[in-house]
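Hi V.,

You were right to ask for the full record rather than a summary. Here it is.
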Amino acid sequence: MPFDIKNAPLHFQGIMNEIFPEALSKGWLIIYINDIIACSKTWKENIYRLSRFLKKIQSVKINISLKKYHFGFKELKELGHVVSGSSLGIDKNKFTAVLLKTIPQTKKEIQSFLGFAGYYRKHIKDFVSIARPLYKLCNKHTVFKMTVDRVKAFESLRQALTTAPLLWIADFKLPFSLYTDASGDGLGAALDQVQIINDKPVEGSIYFISGKIKPTESSYGESQMEFLCLFWALEKLNYFLEGCAFEVITDFTAVKSLIIMKRPKRHMLRWPLAINKFRFNITIHKNADGHYKIILIILLMCQKKLPHRSQ
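Predicted structure:
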């Protein structure tokens, strides 16, 4: 691939997609520009697929560097993550320099640190809650000063990177659990799944999302806000949940009645229609102030510095 050409990555990705259409459609080959992962469940399958891949590479006369290839590994480092067949973690080597970094002295250094930490936000419990003082400091109208709260936020966020949990790889043969919660600041949801680990059923997290409430939605009542949160979460996690049976866990009883409402308000007309294509049961957990609700509330987007409804 030629360097320093603006459209080179786009064209190279297109070429790779054309070379391996069958493998990509079956899902055992993953290509991101010049990074390629061939997935398999058994050693025999691994040898067979690698053989097919290498023969195809040879036939189209593409050169590869064997020094950069790793064969037969159960775990790989890719794009700052550690990927295995069951989980997604953070590559600890990527933030060694960050752990040794002193307290930022400029807004640019704060923004750089937040950008790095934000890349791993879905792994960090209480990310927005911890980072909020630093995001406020990035406001152009805020005078730069590392107060006690901001220093504490920096240290806490840096420490959180070293203890970030693994996210499980979804098993689409098993049911999901979707936890939703809304507040005056925003929307939040967590997708979980119970998988068998060492012959025991264990519930683990697969994905966290959070979003900011739009100005037009700020006047919604509590019941409408919870319904909006469910609608929004299902849209965001559509590629996990459509066609699967799952359970929705919420702490607001009115969500059930809103779904079957005969005369919804105008701004709610499309919500039931969009939700009806999913197959789920609703479980009401009153006063659900445990692990998930805490995470969902504190993962809400920072009002000014983060875009609307990003993941």
